[in-house]
C-alpha cells in the first residue's frame, strides 16, 4: 500500500520509498524526498513564481528520462499553475512550486527542477542573467573556474554582481540578478560577453556550440537567456550517476579549485553547507541587489 503523508495540511501519496535510484551509492527515493524536504527553505524561493519544467527520471539516471513542461495528468487541484506563452504563439499551463506540499508532490515524480530567467507574472522579462560554463574534455571544472573569474571581473566593470553554482554535472553556472529586462536584450548582452571572453581567452573559451570546437575548451553557453529556455534550479538534484546537486559555491572556492572533485557536491553535503554559509544565492531573490545591463 502506498503510504499517505500529510504535509502542511495536504495529503500526499509518496510511493516506492525504498526504490534505489542511484545504484552507485544506494541512494533511494526516500532519501531523495528527505533531501528535498530538508532543503526546501533554500530551494523554494528560487522556484517561487517561476513556471517549472521537470526532467523526470523515475527509474534513476540509468533509466528513461523525459522533459515535461505541461501540467502532468493526475496533478492535484491544489497545485498552482500559470499560463505560459509558447514560441508558436500558443500558450500552455505549467506548474508553480509555491510551497512545501507542491515541492514534495513534484519530488515524488523523481525530477530535476528547471526554471526560466523570468517570473510567471512577466513572461520574457528576465530578472537574472545566466551563463552556463560547460567544459569539453580534457577541460573540466578547473578551467571553468578560470573562465568564471574572468567573467566575474568583466561583469563587475558593468556594475553587475555575479554569483556561482555548480551545474551538478561537469561545469559551473554564473547568475546575475537584474532589474527586469526584456529577455532579447539580456540574450544579446550575454552573447556579446561570451564573444568577448573568447577574444580574451581564446586558448580556453569558445562561444559557439559546435562540438568540433569544444575539446579542451570551456563553452560559454549564453543561450539559456532566451525566454524559451530554462536552467537547472539551485539545489536541484541531477540525473547523474551519483546524487549530485547544483550547489551554490563561494568565490573563494572557485578561485581555489585545483581538482575537478573539489566542486562536486552530493545531497548529503548540502545541509552542512547551508548551516555554514546560508543560501549563497540569496542575493538573486533580493531586488535591492539587482543590476542593469548596459544600454
TrEMBL record:
Main EC class the enzyme belongs to: ligase
Protein's organism: Streptomyces tabacisoli
Record-listed E.C. numbers: 6.5.1.1
Single GO term (MF): DNA ligase (ATP) activity
InterPro entries membership: LigD_pol_dom, MtLigD_Pol-like, NHEJ_LigD
Entry keyword set: Ligase
Pfam families: LigD_Prim-Pol
Record protein name field: Non-homologous end-joining DNA ligase
The keyword Ligase is assigned to this record: yes
PANTHER family: BIFUNCTIONAL NON-HOMOLOGOUS END JOINING PROTEIN LIGD
Sequence ranges assigned to domain DNA ligase D polymerase in this UniProt record: 28-280
Amino acid at each position: 500500500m502506498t503510504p499517505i503523508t500529510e504535509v502542511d495540511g495536504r495529503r500526499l501519496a509518496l510511493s516506492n520509498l525504498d526504490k534505489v535510484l542511484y545504484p552507485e551509492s544506494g541512494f533511494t527515493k526516500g532519501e531523495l524526498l528527505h533531501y528535498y524536504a530538508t532543503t526546501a527553505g533554500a530551494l523554494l524561493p528560487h522556484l517561487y513564481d517561476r513556471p517549472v519544467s521537470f526532467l523526470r527520471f523515475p527509474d534513476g539516471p540509468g533509466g528513461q528520462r523525459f522533459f515535461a513542461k505541461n501540467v502532468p495528468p493526475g496533478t492535484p487541484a491544489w497545485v498552482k499553475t500559470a499560463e505560459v506563452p509558447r514560441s508558436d504563439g500558443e500558450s500552455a499551463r505549467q506548474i508553480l512550486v509555491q510551497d512545501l506540499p507542491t515541492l514534495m508532490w513534484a519530488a515524488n515524480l523523481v525530477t530535476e527542477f528547471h526554471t526560466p530567467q523570468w517570473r510567471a507574472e512577466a513572461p520574457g522579462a528576465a530578472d537574472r542573467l545566466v551563463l552556463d560554463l560547460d567544459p569539453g574534455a580534457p577541460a573540466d571544472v578547473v578551467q571553468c573556474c578560470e573562465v568564471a573569474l574572468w567573467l566575474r571581473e568583466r561583469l563587475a566593470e558593468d556594475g553587475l554582481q555575479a554569483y556561482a553554482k555548480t551545474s551538478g554535472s561537469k561545469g559551473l553556472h554564473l547568475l546575475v540578478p537584474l532589474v527586469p529586462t526584456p529577455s532579447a536584450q539580456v540574450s544579446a548582452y550575454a552573447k556579446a560577453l561570451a564573444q568577448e571572453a573568447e577574444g580574451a581567452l581564446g586558448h580556453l573559451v569558445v562561444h559557439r556550440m559546435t562540438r568540433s570546437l569544444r575539446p579542451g575548451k570551456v563553452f560559454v553557453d549564453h543561450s539559456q537567456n532566451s525566454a524559451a529556455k530554462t536552467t537547472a534550479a539551485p539545489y536541484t538534484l541531477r540525473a547523474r550517476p551519483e546524487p549530485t546537486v547544483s550547489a551554490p559555491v563561494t568565490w573563494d572556492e572557485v578561485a581555489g579549485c585545483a581538482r575537478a572533485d573539489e566542486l562536486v557536491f552530493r545531497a548529503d553535503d548540502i545541509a552542512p553547507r547551508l548551516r555554514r554559509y546560508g543560501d549563497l544565492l540569496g542575493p538573486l531573490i533580493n531586488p535591492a541587489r539587482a543590476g542593469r545591463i548596459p544600454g
